[in-house]
Amino acid sequence: MIKNQRRDPGTGDKVQYRSGRTINKDGSFNVKRIGRTYILVSTFEWLINIRWSLFFLVLILGYTFINLVFALIYLNIGVEHIGGIESLSTNNPLLISYFFSFQTFTTVGYGALHPIGLTTNIIASFEAFLGFMMFAIATGLLYSRFSRPKAKIIFSKQALMVEKEDKKMLQFRIGNLKSNTLMEAEIEVIMQKKEIGPGGPVYNFYNLKLERKYILFFPLNWTVVHEITEKSPLYGFNEDTKDDFEFELLIHFKAFDDTYSEHVHQRYSYISDEIAFGCKFVPAYYSDRHGHTVFDLNKISKYEKIN
Description:
The chain has four helices and 17 strands. The chain is of the alpha+beta class. The protein folds into two domains: 39-147, Orthogonal Bundle (Helix Hairpins); 151-305, Immunoglobulin-like (Sandwich), CATH 2.60.40. The strands form five sheets. Strands 1, 7, 8, 9, 11 and 12 form a six-stranded antiparallel beta sheet that branches. Strands 4, 5, 6, 10 and 13 form a five-stranded mixed beta sheet that branches. Helix 1 (39-49) crosses helix 4 (118-147). The longest helix has 30 residues, at 118-147. It is a multi-pass membrane protein. Residues 69-145 form the Potassium channel domain.
């Protein structure tokens, strides 16, 4: 008999045409919103949450594009309305316009290039104001990204089905990628299983009972274990019957970040195809001759076959 069945945790229980995973590998929900949205707020939140490389790429491309637009405006007005061009080593009108736009947008004002005429002065004044606002927004984004506590938990690429001492267990492993101290770590695993109900296929949800769902200190890896008994929703799941099971393990991790004195969260998921059978994890840490415990994050996902 399966116990620990729970209500929909908020991901929806209707199957319809959904075939993708509920939680993506990066922890985001596989949800596409349409209809009324607040574009400016959504864009600001998107810029805060994207990875650093993409964030700087967006800033550089945006900066280049805006300056190029103003450079084309100055080019259309005529470079003769830009004073000091004789000090440049180029006669290319586009480059002259771009250099002038660059200096105006950043409010650097080296003193060599300057606007001549009413139209050019008006446009340059507007560009300088826009540049001031854009740099203020960029500063706010950088501060938000640096000051916002965020978990960087690495999950093993696959979960394992392990048999040990006549017991069957589901295991996956996690570790902290950051060097900060996490305490009071908690984890919850919900199994989202596709089943046939009175009205057709639906998603049912089950809480997986874990060997430990809470640890006080989290300096090393944590192997999360669920023992498969007759009461488990995974009872009967093995290498021969895996095609009959269609499920996703929805994982929520929470811990207290001692650096920021705030709680951090992270999500992850495994689908039934990401379960390996007859394997065990390779130890991820060891003691060196100096008495230090060495934790190798590169071994979080490493496992070997059990003979």
